[in-house]
Amino acid sequence: MKKYTDVDIVAELQKLVDSHVDSYKEDFDIDKRIIRRAAESPNPEEKPLMWFCRPHGTHCLNENQVFIQGTRDHNTFRFYAEQTYDECIARVIIPKTVKRGKVFGDVFEINYREQAANVAQNSVAPDHDRLTFADGFVLDAPCRSSFDAAMALVGEHGGVQAHQTLPKDAEALAEVLTKQKSRRDRLPEAERTEALSPLPVAELRKYEAVKKAHPDALVCFAQNGYFELYGKDAEKAAPLLGTKLLEKKVRGKPSMPVTGFREAAWVAGSHKLWKSGADVFLSKDGETFKELKAADYIPVGATLNVDGIKCRIEAVDFAADEVRLTNIEDKNRPIRFSESIQYVRSYVEDAGTAIYDTIPKKLTARESIRDKLKSTQKAQPPHTPKPQKSKGKDMEL
Q1: Which residues belong to any copy of the DNA mismatch repair protein MutS-like N-terminal domain (predicted)?
Q2: pLDDT tens string 86-135
Q3: Are residues 172 and 124 in contact, defined by beta-carbon separation less than 8 angstroms?
Q4: Helix (H, G, I), strand (E, B) or coil at 249
Q5: How far apart are alpha carbons 45 and 162 in whole angstroms?
Q6: DSSP alpha helices (H): ranges in 292-363?
């Protein structure tokens, strides 16, 4: 038995429905509404659900009610274990949030028949039913007569919106549910099999147009909250990003390699690619999100103050992590030396060439790094030699 945390719950259960349910698959549509309602509920008691499927349908029940004797949820969960030979697959699910129309949360594997025996042995006695009507009116009534009492009030207060059975011993029920939670939390985490949403053909065409316009750049294409790179770009980017190389399906076409990074992490992700000496182009919603030129990372030919010394950048070797510079303080005696890329880059950024401060709203005329360096140097006051200290008599001798 394993657990799956922070997953698309409906997608996980759909796999079981597809492989195990032969008829009445429409039951799962009801389950989806229950799951979403639990995710959106502020009441913690409504979130843990016990779900199971069998060859002829599915059921989604409230865990709190399953462990109270005589409730519909309690009787339903036990019935197929005690009265049939149906093969049932069960899960405990904890819906947490709804993101982009999908319900995310935790899914725990359980053995259906063992859990049914556990429910039979550890359930607590009921006390009364609590019914909430459409207008907010709440009725507490004995379990056996609550249905008749509700029917008499429907005309006045509208239909019943919620039906809950309360236990005689609330502390005993809380203890049972705590033990259930502790048991499932100890389950080992399942190995994640990473699968990506297919790339729609229309989106593929948009990507191909961007790639055609920027053939030499690593094109990062926004999809489902990620910036994705495809094909040869993905193969080059994966080791730079430290990410896995996966497969992206495209309808009617062969799948292609893909890797990438979250949109929220675009600064770190694009910087890893850019500092390798590659042009990087980020595209989102058909527009330029960010464009980084390799030549701007270490601007060859530009002059730069490195540790207070005026230098010219002669060449950069990304593979060797080396920048070749020339000390041009003394024009008659230029001195050539080398530094690491990261060291020189820190001075490039100090000169005002950091590019991650803002996301461009519109595509505007782009100032190059060299122009920025020139502007910075023009704005600096002219260099004046430091005054010489007068020598003492001892120094003169």
Answers
A1: 205-291
A2: 899 999 999 999 988 899 999 999 999 999 999 999 999 999 999 889 89
A3: yes
A4: strand
A5: 13
A6: 294-297, 341-348
**β-pair type (253-262, 226-230):** antiparallel
- Give the Å distances, CA to CA, from 167 to 25, 64, 67, 163, 279: 33, 10, 9, 13, 65
pLDDT tens readout for residues 220-251: 999 988 999 999 999 999 999 998 888 888 87
d(CA 177, CA 185): 12
In the prediction, which pLDDT does 228 show?
95
- With contact defined as beta carbons under 8 Å apart, do 310 and 328 qualify? yes
The pairing of beta strand 280-284 with beta strand 218-223: parallel
SS3 state at 207:
helix
**64-79: pLDDT as tens digits:** 999 999 999 999 999 9
Q: Are 231 and 256 in contact (CB under 8 A)?
A: yes
Per 3-state DSSP, the chain is made up of helix, strand and coil in percentages (nearest 5) of 40, 30, 30
